[in-house]
Amino acid sequence: MALKKKPVTGMRDVLPNEMQIREYMTNIIKETYRGFGFSSIETPCVEHIENLTSKQGGDNEKLIFKILKRGDKLNVEAATTEDEVVDSGLRYDLTLPLSRYYSNNAANLPSPFKALQMGSVWRADRPQKGRFRQFVQCDIDILGDATNFAEIELILATTKALSRICPDKKFTVRINDRNILKGMAAYCGFPESAYDQVFIILDKMDKIGLDGVEAELLEAGFAPESVETYKGLLSEEGKDAEAVKKLGAVLSKVLPQSVSDGLAHIMQTVSAVSQTGIALVFDPTLVRGMSYYTGTIFEVAMEGFGGSVGGGGRYDEMIGKFTGTKTPACGFSIGFERLVSILMEEGFSIPNQSNKKAYLFEKGVDTAVLADIMKQAMEERNSGVQVLVAQMNKNKKFQKEQLMKDGYQEFCEFYRDAFKQN
């Protein structure tokens, strides 16, 4: 039986033209983040199953690729539950592995620690257009800093990276705080046990609008007066730091003033320092679904694209689950795969790309001629030109068309009896 040539369902092969864009983006991101003092790290793609199923990853925990025990530890015949045959799994994000990494290595790391991590993650999701079971995440995190400076640095670094990758695109960073979400719910009289249900409905605002949120809350059985008060809060105009302070004053009986003041301070500082022109707006409807967020949350939207191209927030309790000691942590993730897809669909060309030249030689050129061809190619390579040396195919036109897709625009053709350059 012939071997299967297609990738496993939900996985994909990456062709050279896309790989160039991915490498271009990776280089810009790493260069930008290192300029802000972030250090590259790497964590294993395999994590302990206990960590992966610790209620930190929300719905992602349902999508874990689990790994069987090996050797003598695997006894399928005697097992009565899955837990008896599984001891690890592929990571579904980079945040949980980072928390374990920091917990294990904190004594050898600076404090605060600014981490940069890019790598593949795996989720046993339902494959569809633009959604795969293996994809790259790109995270920066600041661990050990409880001040607003962490959020400010993360937003500035991320927006600078985005503006360098897509200088012609308009981005908007939406920002909120999980404590403001809870304060609004408490102010309106929703029972604390129902906060998550309220937030799940609120998270649909982009799709169903304010009236739709109102209708679903009433349908869920919440008190009409609570829903009406909530609708009034969400209808307030203003998306700047002053709007945050105004809402903080309204919620003063249920929300510490430090929360709204802190969020306003982040917004004012970023606006004063940022050189990207990317908008930063307060959005009291922003929820971010991950259960581990404890404070500030943010999300990046791009004009003309439905959905976010980045997001993150503060998760001050995750590391403590490894160490027993509460450790402040905050992170921001760029939607690497989404940006790649957008650039590919738009026919993006890498700017200032080094010259790429192809030397094509006819079959049968003698050894001395071939040696001269390769020497000439080496000289051009030494001067910074990317040179491909390859034997000319019978269908030369198709060969050149394929090379042009890969960025080759200049060709030198070598024949047994003549030389041609075009």
In a nutshell, what does this entry contain?
By secondary structure, the protein is α/β, with parallel strands linked by helices.
Index terms:
422 residues, alpha/beta, eight-stranded mixed beta sheet, four-stranded mixed beta sheet, globular
Tell me roughly what share of residues is in helical segments. 25-40%
Q: How many E strands? A: 15
Mean pLDDT: 91
SS-derived structural category? alpha/beta
**Overall 3D form:** globular
Radius of gyration: 27 Å
Helical stretch count? 14
Strand order of the largest sheet: 1-5-6-11-10-9-7-8
Following the backbone from N to C, one meets helices and strands in this order, namely HEEHEEHEEHEHHHHHHEEEHEHEHEHEE
N- and C-termini, Cα separation = 46 Å
- Which strand-content bin applies to the residues? 15-25%
Could you describe the 3D structure shown?
- The chain has helices at 16-35, 49-52, 95-105, 149-165, 178-187, 195-202, 205-219, 224-234, 241-250, 257-273, 320-323, 336-345, 367-382, 396-405; strands spanning 39-40, 46-48, 66-68, 86-90, 113-122, 134-143, 171-177, 279-282, 296-302, 308-314, 329-334, 356-361, 386-391, 410-414, 419-421.
- It is α/β, with parallel strands linked by helices.
- The strands form 3 sheets. An 8-stranded mixed β-sheet has the order 1-5-6-11-10-9-7-8, sandwiched between helices. The chain has a 4-stranded mixed β-sheet with strand order 13-12-14-15, covered by helices on one side. A 3-stranded antiparallel β-sheet has the order 2-4-3.
- A hairpin with a 5-residue loop joins strand 9 and strand 10 (308-314).
- It is globular, with a radius of gyration of 27 Å.
- The protein starts with 15 loop residues before the first helix and ends with a strand.
- 32% of the residues are buried.
- The mean pLDDT is 91.
